[in-house]
Design brief:
With 241 residues, the protein is an alpha/beta fold. The chain contains 6 helices and 13 strands. The chain has a single domain, classed as HUPs (Rossmann fold, 3-Layer(aba) Sandwich), CATH 3.40.50. The protein is globular and about 65 Å long. GO terms for molecular function: electron transfer activity.
């Protein structure tokens, strides 16, 4: 099976700090969390059916992070460098690669840990002209058909579609593997094709500012039966309940 998996290189959100009223994004980068689930699922499908996995990443093309994707089992990566681009621009760049690769199945994470739009997978499917199944927590490939369970809290929806198709996966679908030392070393031998994308964003990013909440600093002391009514009254005054 010919597989494509999209992944994004993002700042490690656990290292981002607020400094001088602004977000300090000059931190180490990583593969966006749910994109690692997409990579893991692609590797499992390849292990079951054979074939090849091509990774496509747009934007930051940090080689150290790309090597992590290769060490997990991706066979090659197309690294598309681009200045700031919105989701539609990213989808356009990814779709150009998808069309040239003509895969059976394209996988993405349900969202990225920076933009969190959940829009990339559906946009690529629309531009490519194939079905899309989003928020998939379980996936089974049988010949030219995929059967998927969609996590739509509080219900689970089971759907089937024909290949080729685009799938976005949730964190429930698997636990991403930790590459062995040998896989990490062998990843340096796998090909990375560099490209450049130039597009005009439909939406522009003016600024990124931290969202801060001023604490009320209200302390209630006493026995539980005394504090609970006070807490309820305080929450009512704030309009919480």
């Amino acid at each position: 099976m010919n597989l494509v998996v999209g992944f994004k290189v993002v700042p490690d959100e656990t290292l981002i700090r607020v400094s001088g009223g602004k977000l300090d994004l000059n931190v180490a980068t990583k593969i966006s969390t749910y994109d690692k689930n997409a990579i893991e699922e692609a590797v499992r499908i390849k292990e079951a059916t054979g074939g090849k996995i091509t990774g496509v990443t747009v934007g930051n093309t940090d080689r150290k992070v790309i090597r992590e994707a290769l060490s997990m089992g991706v066979d090659e990566v197309v690294a598309v460098s681009a200045q700031y681009t919105d989701v539609l621009g990213t989808a356009t760049a990814v779709t150009e690669e998808v069309r040239s690769l003509n895969p059976d199945l394209v996988l993405f994470g349900e969202t990225t840990t920076d933009g969190s739009t959940s829009g990339l997978g559906p946009m690529v499917a629309e531009l490519w002209g194939v079905p899309v199944v989003t928020f998939v927590r379980s996936l089974k490939v049988e010949g030219k058909t995929v059967r998927a369970e969609r996590s739509l809290t509080p219900v689970i929806e089971v759907v089937e579609t024909e290949l080729p198709a685009v799938i976005t996966v949730t964190g429930e679908i698997n636990t991403p593997r930790i590459p062995t030392l040998r896989q990490i070393m062998e990843s340096s031998k796998k090909p990375v094709r560099s490209k450049e994308f130039r597009g005009t964003p439909v939406a522009s990013l003016d600024s990124v500012e931290p969202y801060t909440v001023q604490r009320k600093r209200v302390v209630m002391e006493g026995k539980l039966e005394e504090v609970v009514p006070k807490l309820i009254e305080a929450l009512r005054k704030e309009g919480v309940i």
